[in-house]
Amino acid sequence: MAKKRVRTPEEASRDKASISLLQLACEGDFETSFSRADTLAACPIGSDGMCCKVCGMGPCRLVKEGQTGVCGATLETVAARNFARMVAAGAASHSDHGRDLAYTLLAAAEGHAPDYTVRDPGKLKEMAAYLDVETDGRPIMELARDVALAALGEFGKVQGEILYLKRAPKKRQEIWHNLGIAPRNVDREIVEIMHRTHVGNDQDAEHILDHSMRAALGDGWGGSMLATDLSDVLFGTPGPVISEANLGVLQDDEVNIIIHGHEPTLSEMIVAAAQDPELIEYAQSKGAKGITMGGICCTANETLMRQGVPLAGNFLQQELAILTGAVDAMVVDIQCIMQGVVKLAEQFHTEIITTSPKAKITGATHMEFDEHRALEIAKEIVRKAADNFTKRGNTNIPDESTQLIPGFSHEYINYALGGFYRGSLRPLNDAIAAGRIRGVVANIGCNNARICHDDLHRYVVTEFIKNDVLVVETGCGAIASAKQGYMTPEAALEHAGPGLREVCEAVGIPPVLHMGSCVDNSRILTVLAQMATEGGLGEDISDIPAVGMAPEWMSEKAISIATYCVASGAYVIMGHSSPVSGCEEVDRIISDGWEAKVGGRMEFCNDGEEIVRRSMAHIDKKRADLGLPEYDPSKWGKSGDWRIQELMELPLPERIEAAYGNTVK
Question: What is the pLDDT of residue 656?
C-alpha cells in the first residue's frame, strides 16, 4: 500500500509562525495534529453520515442503494440521527458553560465566592428585565441572586418557554411558534434529541431535524446568550483594547503561561494572580523578568476583550505553542483541548494543568478549580509555572505578532455608531441601504487539521472586505483575522473596498470586528435582531443582506451554532466537509427544506472562491428583494480622510481645483 503523502509546513498552514514551528516539528520528529491528520485517514462512511452505532446490533454501514440497518432504519433516518446528535452535543457544551456562570454569579451574590463581584450593574438590570425579575430599589447583590436563580431556571423550567426568545424580532418569534420549535427550556430539548434518536424511536428524518432546530435555538437564544450576558455581568462588558496576536507574544526571559479553553471564571483569576506584585517577585526569584500571559482558543478571546491579554493563537496552534520550548505552563479547562498536548509536553519542560471537574487528561497535572477559593488556586497555578521556568531549555519563539483592537460587543457597536445617549445601529442600516456597505458576513468557527490552517479564513475575509462587506467574527476565525492584521482601523485603508473604507474612517473601526469567543455568537444574533427591528432592512433576520459561515469548522458546537443561525433566518455556509453528504434527502432538508420553513438554509462548501461567490449572490439578492440600489463601488471612496490624503499630495492649485472644481478663483 502506498504511503500517504505528508504535507509540507507551507501546505499545512498559511500562518508564518505556525509554518516555522511545523518545520521544527518535522526536523525533530515531533507529532502534532497536522502530522496525525496526514497519516490517519478519515472514515469515509462515518464522515458522510452513513454509519449508525446507536445500538448493540451495529454499527451498521449503509453503503448500498436501499440498504437499511438491522432494525430497518433507512439512510435518511441514520443521517438525521447523526446530525441531531452533533447538535445535541454542541448545544450541551455551550449551554452547560452558561449554567456554570449562573452558579458563579449565585455564589458571588450569596457571599460564597468572594473573588467575584458584579462588574456591570447595567447589564445585570438588562438581564433582569428579560428574565422578569423586579429591579426597582433593590441592592445589587440581592438582584444578582435573583437573576442567577432565574437564569438557572431557564435550563430546566417546568412550564413556558425560554424567556430570551423575546429578544428576537416579532416576525421571527411567530415563525418559531407556528412551527412548534420554540424551545421550552435548554436541557429538555437536548435530552429529547437523545431520546428521539435512541433505537426504535423517531424514524422520520424531517421530524428529527425539526427538533434539531428547536434544541439549537435553546442554545443560541438560551444557554449561549445567557453565558455571554453572565460573563459581562461578572467580568465587564467588553470595549476596545489594544493587544497583539500570534506566538511572538511569548517572551524568552519571562514566565509564560498559556490559558486555553473556554471558562472565563478561571482565566480571569489567573490574569489577576499574574499581576500580583508578590507573584511577580516570586517569578523574578526564579530568574525570570516577569510573567507573560497568552491565550489560545476562546479563553484567549474572553481575556483579550476584557483584559487585553495577547492571543497566542487559535485551535491548531496549541501544540505549536509547546514546540517553542517557552511555555512554562498550559492551563486548560474545557472544550477544544487536544489530548496530544500532554504527550508533546513530556518532550519539553511544559506542564499541562487541567482544572475542570468535567475534564481530566491522562498524564496531566490536575489542579481542580473551585470558584469559592478562586484567587487562591490561581496563585498556586502561577507559582507552579514560575517553578517550571527553571527547567526551561532552548527556545524557538517565532518573531511573529500583529496588533489588533478587539472588544466590539453589541453595546459598544451601538455606542460607536450613535454615542452614549443616541446609541443605535441606524448608521449601519443606512450604510447598507445606501450601498457603502454591500452586506455583512459573520465569519466564525474553528480550525481543522485536515485542511490548510487559516487558509479559508484568510481568503474569504480578504475577498469580503475588498468587496465592501463588513465582517464580524468570533472564536478561532477571529484569531485568524487578528493574525492577518485585519483588526485595526488602519487595515481599512489598505484592504477595504471604497465604501467600507469610508465607513471605517468615519467611525474609526476596523473592517473586521472582533466580537468575542465562540459562545458570543449570541452577540451577533443580538446585532442582527436589532438591525431587523431598527427599520430599513426588512422586518426579520432573514431579510438582511447577511451570511454566516464557519469555513474551517470541526466541532459539534459549530453544527449547533450553524443550526440556530439557520433557524433564526440566516443563510449559513460551512466549509470543509458535510456530515450528511452521503444522504441527498437530509442534505435537501437542511437547505431547501429549512429555507421554506424558517427562511434560512445550511450548505457545505470546501472551495473558498465558491463560498465567496455564493455569499455575494445571496447578499445581492437580499438587496434586490429589499429594493436597495445595486452594489456599485465606483460611487464611493472619494470623500473623508482618504480623500484628504489624496488631495494633500497634490500641488496647491491642483488640490483646490480637485476639491472645488472651477468655482474657486
Answer: 60
Shared domain check, 108 and 88: yes
Q: What is the pLDDT, as a whole number, of residue 655?
A: 62
Give the span between the Cα atoms of 202 and 205, in whole angstroms.
8
Q: Which residues of the chain have pLDDT under 70?
A: 1-3, 638-648, 652, 655-665
User: In the structure grid, which three cell numbers stand for residue 414, read together?
Assistant: 451601538
User: Is 504 within 8 Å of 492 (Cβ atoms)?
Assistant: yes
113 plus 256 within the same structural domain: no
Q: Are residues 510 and 374 in the same domain?
A: no
CATH number at residue 150: 1.20.1270.30
Q: Which domain holds residue 285?
A: 243-389
Residue 68 lies in a domain: no
Distance CA 307, CA 305 (A): 6
How do residues 439-480 score in pLDDT, each as one tens digit?
999 999 899 999 999 999 999 999 999 999 999 999 999 999
Helix (H) or strand (E) holding 220: none
Asked whether residue 415 falls in the same domain as residue 489, the answer is yes
Cell output for 30: 515531533
DSSP β-ladder status, 329-332 and 546-550: unpaired
How many structural domains are present in the chain?
5
Q: How far from the centroid of its chain's Cα atoms is residue 141's Cα? A: 30
pLDDT tens profile 110-165: 999 999 999 999 999 999 999 999 999 999 999 999 999 999 999 999 999 999 99
Q: How far apart are CA 530 and CA 427, in angstroms?
A: 12
Residue in this structure with the C-alpha cell 407556528, named with its chain if needed: 178
CA atoms of 369 and 388, how far apart (whole Å): 20
Secondary structure class of 244 (helix, strand, coil): strand
How many CA atoms lie less than 13 Å away from 154 in the CB half-sphere? 34
- C-alpha grid cell for residue 604? 457545505
Q: Give the total residue count for the chain.
A: 665
Q: What's the CA dihedral at 280, 281, 286, 291 to 10 degrees? A: 10
Residue in 448, 511, 617, 533 with CA at minimum distance from that of residue 170: 533
CATH code, domain carrying 329: 3.40.50.2030
Instruction: Please state the separation of Cα 621 from the chain's center in Å.
Output: 27
In this structure, are 327 and 456 located in the same domain? no
